[in-house]
Amino acid sequence: MLATREFLLVMGLGLIVAGLTTYIMTWVLVSVHLRDRHPVERARVGAFLFSPRAFGWYLGRRYRRLGDRLLDGIARMGAIGAWGIVFGAFATFVSSALGWLP
Predict the structure, then answer these.
(1) DSSP structure class, residue 3
(2) Element containing residue 93 per DSSP (H, E)
(3) For 47-76, how does the pLDDT look when each residue is reduced to its tens digit (9 = 90+)?
(4) pTM for the complete prediction?
(5) What does the DSSP 8-state code read for residue 101?
């Protein structure tokens, strides 16, 4: 049980770090692309990368509604990073929950 708990913790932290790195790097590119080509969507999503609206925009793949293939290519990596953060947080939570078991 201890090995499983430690594995989930390390895996979860790794996913969080990798996802966060990808999310931050792609947000800059996506933000500039939205500013230049889709200002209405940029205003709707917001300019702050850690806002719940921006994070949900990635998780829900709402960038695909715009029909911009260039944006799809950039934002897909950000969506993978956002899901990595979610799965990593879930894995660390499960690891923590396993520590509560007798």
Answers:
(1) H
(2) helix 69-100
(3) 888 899 999 999 999 999 999 999 999 999
(4) 0.90
(5) -
